[in-house]
Amino acid sequence: MYYKTMVCFIFMWLAFSPMAAEVISIDKIAAVVNNRIITRTDIDKAILFFPVFRKKNQPQRAFYAGVLQDLIHYKVISLEYSDEIILRDEDYTDVQTSAINKVGSYDKLLRQLRRWDMTWSDFKVFIREKVIYEKVLKQKFPIKIDIGFNEIETFYNEQYLPAQNRLKLKPRTLIEMTALIENQLRKERLQEPLARWLKEIAASYRIENKLAEEQQ
After folding, report:
1. Phi, psi at residue 31, to the nearest 5°?
2. Region 29-215: CATH code
3. Which of 92, 134, 176, 216 sits CB 3.0–4.6 Å from 172 for a disulfide?
């Protein structure tokens, strides 16, 4: 009886305390992969740090769902291959560089990390699953695909620039973004075989897409 009374008292104190919002604030779960959680905040961070771009005329909800699907894929591949993949510092370079290019500079990246109360070590933990995913992809899909400069320029104008404007970030020049956009376009070309491969692996995992359930 005493225990129940104390729990009730603590709950009431939290609910009415001036610090209640800070104390009981809980990040919403967007998806669960084999009991591994992906939060709404993870999606927001991915939009800021990863080379994901909202397509022209793409609804916000569809874009957000697509970013979550990418995070699910990163987690699935990480779970599938983490025992086989040994990560070295150089394996992080491409993902770290793309984040720097996305936000504008190394200093701006550090400022964004502080905004999320993240250290550089926290950032490495956050990107680890994507680093594993990218490394596995290079091994499984070593196909060389040529991308024309016109395609890169179109992507830059129609997807990259609008995305930077929405994030209120100063855009990099087309020349600075060419390599990153070229890599993104190559992945889009591989979309069909990549989707089949991911679907086959994901079938072995229990995936709960809470965001999709809420939108039904």
Report:
1. -160, 160
2. 1.10.4030
3. 176
